[in-house]
Here is the input.
Amino acid sequence: MLLPRLCLLAPLAVLLAGIVPAMAEAPKPPVEADMIHPAPKIEWESIAELPPRPGMEKAEGLAGVFAGSQGDVLMIAGGTNYAGLDFTKGPQRAWWADIYVLQRRYTPEQKTVYEWLPAGAELPHNLAYGASASTPEGVLCIGGAELEKVTDACFLMKWNAEAKKVEFEDYPKLPKPLAGASAVRIGTIVYVLGGTAQLPAGRATNTFLALDLSKKGDGKNFVWKALPAWDGPARIFPIAAASLENGVESIYLCGGRDPGNAPDFLTDLHKYNPVKKDWAILGDIIDPHGHPSSVMAAPAFHVPPHHLVVVSGTDQELVKMMENNTRKLEAVDAPEELERQRYNKLLLENYPGYTRTVMAYDAEVGEWSNLSNFPGKPCLTSPTVNWDGAIIIPGGETGPGKRSPLIWQATVRKKAAVVEE
Here is the structure.
């Protein structure tokens, strides 16, 4: 998926020469002694790799999956890839209904071992780009799309440990079809933010919905309820996660895109307080160079006590150039069209990947800091899963037409703490 709408701004060689060094030379993280609230220390490791589908030697990876945890299993379902096809010859994605179940167990020496189990089921349809949230009973899968059909369906994907298979339970439908949204669970309430009712080229929405899981079984009250939206642009593929501030777990919403409007790539940061039921504007996402930064479809998670961590983002100018170059121009002749195709192929083959910067927002002091660089190719358009305190990124998109099958885990080795002056 080329995030999302696909001017020639600069020759390719000049562009890539400018981007790659800039990505490699991000400012060093601040020293702990200089910080009021030291940022969390995060260690990354790849704990597994998606198994290949029948007939394939190696898994290609998936983007836009549903994912979540239930006890000692991690479930990953749906998603898209290019099934081994050459993306540069045309963006024909394959949509999948496969489900992958990763079991975690411990040896007598307390070593963690991961093993793929047969799911025993598939999704009801080939689905991708929905939202998902882990619950004690399973993974709530919300909306999504199959090709160009966006759905309003929601269902619980749950692991039957005795039967050793995945089962499904229908949940209340959304008020309208929705894809490209984000979901956050705080306590018994699941929130859904942003998204679009149409793929591709759909308009962004300012959707803000809530479902109270404690109302399950109460027909008229177990429904999605619309809440007042944030004071800012509508958005697709926003960043959303919970973080703690002054004892209240709040929702932080930032970034995403608002295609067709200005600004398109969004840098704003908002906070929703579920106790007061109100929104606050907190300014912009600030990159390591001190500039407003646009991010979208990036993994994000909460690190206790009060840090919001965002992994990677997108290079706005590069994505815009690629989108403009893929447009069909009626005014060009055949030789020029062939030259454009050659240029686009070269650009895609040499795409440097998404930025590796890992940033953190201190919710108590309202400041951004640069934590580190992601150790591999950053993965976008996949949900972040909190698996009993371990943060999981289940692969994702590493560039236009490119996917990673690696399952990444982030472990917080040292939590943020207040330094007394």
The CA atoms of residues 83 and 338 lie 25 Å apart. The chain has three helices and 28 strands.
